[in-house]
Amino acid sequence: MKFTKTVQLAFGSILSNKLRSLLTMLGIIIGVGAVIILVSIMDGITGQVTDAFESFGMNNITVSMVSRGSTRYIEPDDMYEIIDKNPDLFTYCTPNVSLRATVKAKNSSDSENASVTGTNEAYDKINQLTTEQGRFLQFIDVEKQLKVCVIGTYYEQEFFGKGKALGNTVKINGVPFTVIGVLEEKADSSENSSDQCIYIPYTVASKLSNNRFISSYTVTLTDANKLEKAKAALEKNLTKILGSSDFYSIIATQEILEELNKIMGTMKAALVCIAGISLLVGGIGIMNIMLVTVTERTKEIGIRKSLGAKKKHILSQFVVEAATISGVGGILGILFGAIVSFVAGKLMNVTILPSLFAIVLAFSVSVAIGIMFGFLPAKNAANLNPIDALRFE
Amino acid sequence: MNQKPLVEFQNIYKIYQMGDSQVRALDGVSFSVYEGEFVAIIGQSGSGKSTCMNIIGCLDIPTEGTYLLNGADVSKLTDDEQSEIRNQTLGFIFQQYNLLPRLNILENVKLPLMYKGLKESEQTERAMEALNRVGIADKCHHKPSQLSGGQQQRASIARALAGSPSVILADEPTGALDSKTSAEVIAFLIQLNALGNTIILITHDNSIAAQAKRVIRIHDGKIIYDGIPAGDSIIRSTVLLQKEGTV
């Protein structure tokens, strides 16, 4: 008996009892759907977090000063020297000064609290920012401590209206700054998006914050593979200047991301295991219905045996039928999971693509469950005594 | 008579244990059927004729005694070997037709050929040939439920014929049919026999049995008559009853 014939037969049997087949499949549909939804959402969130990190720059290293009651800090010139000495390891370096300040357009009475970042002229290259109108900060702005700023599209639209910001004045803590550049829109120009940002020379920021020490630097690598070497070089020089490795910490974006991926991976595995339980329950549902089917079709089994069907014929017929139920359930579950993942992605504003890995895994597991749980009923069917089966009404 | 019997019962017993008492469905039955015969096994319900049919059909095995089908001792065969021998040597015609309701007529007739392991094209060819012989080839894509009783029985005859079995076993083939259709079915069996097919017919109906070449009458698990059918069923019954007294 050909395999395709057996599958065809199994489909016939499933279609002859639509409601029951559907209810039987429900366990598998939910199980497969749950696996796909969970894996896809986890992948989506991981992807988003990864993207966020990548937008910080995967080649970035942040050097932070750790204050331990003393006032040991690295001067920007010292930092630049380290970078310049190792051109094979480092490309750019910027001090970071962040301060909370009230900002408002010059002639407006509405002010809002904002996070203002003091940087140098390398910042846009380090963080892959594009200045759409005007220009980014330059060396001269930093050196001369000019009161200029580069703003994101949120402030452009909020304070001045689209395209009207250049040359206008923004007041930061009451100090007027001339807008010299507007960044390209990165998100949707809304509040709290990455478009809500103001950059000023770090020299000016440092003065505004009344703290002449720079507490953090961002350095970029020439090559992500040189992370270990670069860290070693930084450590060596910084320890020499500061006297101890206790006064600073070095964090690479790469390393954070790796840690994060590990945690996400563990969570994903745990969630898939939980979803797997519903697959198991679905499998038991299939076994149950197959036992009923075998009883109902005892007469058919008797007829087939009287016509010469061997055990293997009956066995394969029922196993294939169970596998087909679970397989069809698996496909419906994939559709269900894909649709829900897609909708969830839209609602959560996360790009969620149904995970191919999850689809393949869930489908093969569901078919395997069908075969496993279909085997016992099929074996019962194959072992029926032909005369008892034929007489069964 | 031909050299070797197709069906040979050697002192067959079939005993069922019903609680404390034993029921002897077959109580030492011996007979042989040779190629080309048309035998009717007749008896009332409970006589043991169905048990006899089940054993001939390899659907059941005797408690005692030896059953040789085509020279092979059936009780020594495994389940699968019995399936194999049913497939190769026997063609069943049942009272309730026993067609599978979900398959169409052609697919039903193809079943024994499928289990023979024939190629799809050959299955279809031989099944259509069998359907042509019984005259319902035009109905081959209908479901059994769309056919009349007579047509369904023809389909089951086609299914029995399709595998070219050595013996055709008909279990009350006219039991569910009206007298006109019954006559057609019996006429068809007679015609098949004339073409050389060996036929064993199980019935409780004397007038049906009378149309066979040989009659075996079973009563209480024993053979009480084995010979040519008498011309008139009523007279024959009397003869048989007299004979029963002597057995």
Looking at this protein, list some descriptive labels.
heterodimer, A: 393 residues, alpha+beta, 2 domains, six-stranded mixed β-barrel, elongated, B: 247 residues, alpha/beta, six-stranded mixed beta sheet, four-stranded antiparallel beta sheet, 8 helices
Give a summary of the structure in a few sentences.
Chain A has helices at 3-15, 18-56, 76-85, 123-126, 139-143, 153-160, 202-208, 227-242, 253-296, 298-306, 311-348, 356-382, 386-391, and strands at residues 60-65, 90-105, 112-119, 131-134, 148-151, 169-172, 175-183, 198-201, 216-221, 248-252. Chain A is α+β, with helices and mostly antiparallel strands.
Blueprint (SSEs and pairs):
The complex is a heterodimer of chains A (393) and B (247).
Chain A: H1 3-15, H2 18-56, E1 60-65, H3 76-85, E2 90-105, E3 112-119, H4 123-126, E4 131-134, H5 139-143, E5 148-151, H6 153-160, E6 169-172, E7 175-183, E8 198-201, H7 202-208, E9 216-221, H8 227-242, E10 248-252, H9 253-296, H10 298-306, H11 311-348, H12 356-382, H13 386-391
Parallel strand pairs in A: 3-8, 5-7
Antiparallel strand pairs in A: 1-9, 1-10, 2-3, 2-6, 2-9, 4-7, 5-8, 6-7
Helix pairs in contact in A: 1-11, 2-9, 2-11, 2-12, 9-11, 9-12, 11-12
Chain B: E1 7-18, E2 21-33, E3 38-42, H1 49-56, E4 64-69, E5 72-73, H2 79-89, E6 90-93, H3 105-116, H4 120-134, H5 149-162, E7 167-171, H6 179-194, E8 198-203, H7 206-209, E9 214-219, E10 222-227, H8 233-246
Parallel strand pairs in B: 3-8, 3-9, 6-7, 7-8
Antiparallel strand pairs in B: 1-2, 1-4, 4-5, 9-10
Characterization of this structure:
The complex is a heterodimer of chains A (393) and B (247). Chain A has 2 domains: 3-52 and 259-391, no CATH class; 94-219, no CATH class. Chain A has 13 helices and 10 strands. Chain A has helices at 3-15, 18-56, 76-85, 123-126, 139-143, 153-160, 202-208, 227-242, 253-296, 298-306, 311-348, 356-382, 386-391; strands at residues 60-65, 90-105, 112-119, 131-134, 148-151, 169-172, 175-183, 198-201, 216-221, 248-252. Chain A has a 6-stranded mixed β-barrel. Chain A is elongated. The two termini of chain A are 27 Å apart. Chain B is α/β, with parallel strands linked by helices. Helices cover 38% and strands 26% of the residues of chain B. Chain B has 8 helices and 10 strands. Chain B has helices at residues 49-56, 79-89, 105-116, 120-134, 149-162, 179-194, 206-209, 233-246; strands at residues 7-18, 21-33, 38-42, 64-69, 72-73, 90-93, 167-171, 198-203, 214-219, 222-227. In chain B, strands 6-7-8-3-9-10 form a 6-stranded mixed β-sheet, with helices on both faces. A 4-stranded antiparallel β-sheet of chain B has the order 2-1-4-5, with helices on one face. Classes of the chains: A alpha+beta (393), B alpha/beta (247). The A-B interface holds A 1-2, 5, 12-13, 16, 299-300, 303-313, 386-387, 390 and B 54, 57, 59-60, 79-80, 82-84, 86-88, 92, 98, 100, 102, 111-112, 114-117, 120, 159, 163.
